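[Automated response] Your request has been received and processed.

Submitted sequence:
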Amino acid sequence: MQRQKIYRPNVAAVILSSKFPEKCEFFVAHRSDIKNAWQFPQGGIDEGETPREALKRELLEEIGCDNVEVLGEYPEWISYDFPKKTNSKKLYAFDGQTQKYFLVRLKEGAEINLDAYHIPEFAEYDFVDYDSLFKKVTYFKRKVYRKVIDYFIKEGLI
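Generated structure:
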């Protein structure tokens, strides 16, 4: 009998720069603990926390900024399995994550501070266009990112 997979509840932020809608640029960051791993900010949902509360907390912890406007929310939870080789000890109990995606826009004057948290999640960040995004982000997140972003485009949010 095969055991049922265990997924960690998680939120993820598709962040548009404050230049949106004049210019469509996506925020991506390079993880400080995994070589060549670029991704969107994301993180676990604590017990008793709503996904929106987790979103604000994770943004503060990971990029030092929650000065955002929520533009949309992907209607479903999306699950994915971790790659077989993962360096993260904090995820050992999980087979993957189930995520709630939010589309947010940085407000005018918002400042990113990757050193805001005592152990920085990211080493550097960049703002990239749609096509560059899928060349830059880590391979196992590309399919999900495309699905989510294409939904936001179809809904007229991007």
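Summary generated for your ticket: DSSP finds three helices and eight strands in the chain. The chain has a mean pLDDT of 92.
If you did not submit this request, please reply to this message.
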